[in-house]
TrEMBL record:
Residues 35-171 form the Nudix hydrolase domain. Residues 1-20 are annotated as: Disordered. GO terms for molecular function: coenzyme A diphosphatase activity; metal ion binding. Its cofactor is Mg(2+); Mn(2+). The lineage of its organism: Bacteria, Pseudomonadati, Pseudomonadota, Alphaproteobacteria, Rhodospirillales. This is NUDIX hydrolase. InterPro entries: CoAse (IPR045121), NUDIX_hydrolase-like_dom_sf (IPR015797), NUDIX_hydrolase_dom (IPR000086).
Length: 218
């Protein structure tokens, strides 16, 4: 796993590949829109039976992305030293997982949302045991999903819904009672692309028509 990300060329966020909602919706990208820097941790847990990815489900009362599944993360604070510092700070604040348990092994492509967030996904390797004490105001649940689930052909879906008179497409990974979609699913697609290229696998989309999910600030 570490070797895979060691082979990725480190490119500054303002010069590298910009992924985002516009991957499936070219008209959604507005280069003139004000940008809000943010960072998330993509936590890879090294379990005995294979890697898992740690995710959170946000509480229903939050202003942004209420009730959605997401990586630990948030906006860059002026006191943060860099994007990695932002991601690890948010991990500690939201999940209660100290940064000393995290070995940063690389970054995914910068992800831009329709609402103007410019997200740097920082990939962190975590070996158990580690403490988890979620912030009950922000986090309703902390759970893990096997990495192989995201790499399995057919589990990656492409949905759409009507938004402002247009079809908006988005990636989704339904897993048990969780619906992983939007920016989080988009970053997971990028992770899978990196790992699948290394393994020589193809992860084709499974198109699904769905108008049930409400876009809440994506």
């Amino acid at each position: 796993m570490i070797q895979v990300f060691a082979q990725q060329k480190a490119v500054p966020s303002d010069q590298g590949n910009l992924r985002g909602d516009h991957d499936l919706n070219p008209g959604f990208f507005d280069p003139k829109r004000d940008k809000t820097p943010a960072a998330v941790v993509v936590p890879l847990i090294e379990r005995e039976n294979g890697f898992t990815i740690l995710l959170t489900k946000r509480t229903d009362h939050l202003h942004d992305h209420a009730g959605q599944v997401s990586f630990p993360g948030g906006r860059v604070d002026p006191t943060d030293q860099n994007h990695c510092d932002t991601a690890l700070r948010e991990l500690e604040e939201e999940v209660g997982l100290p940064r000393k348990h995290v070995d940063i092994i690389g970054e995914l492509d910068t992800y831009v949302t329709r609402t103007g967030f410019v997200i740097t996904p920082v990939v962190g390797l975590i070996k158990p045991p580690f403490p988890v004490e979620p912030d009950s105001f922000e986090v309703a649940e902390v759970f893990e999903v096997p990495l192989n689930f995201f790499l399995t052909p057919g589990n990656r879906q492409r949905h759409f819904r009507e938004f402002e008179g247009y079809r908006r497409y988005y990636y989704a990974f339904p897993f048990n009672d969780y619906f992983i979609w939007g920016a989080t699913a988009g970053m997971l697609v990028n992770l899978c692309e990196i790992l699948s290229l290394n393994r020589g696998n193809d992860i084709s989309d499974n198109d699904v028509t769905c108008n049930e999910v409400i876009c809440n600030g994506e």
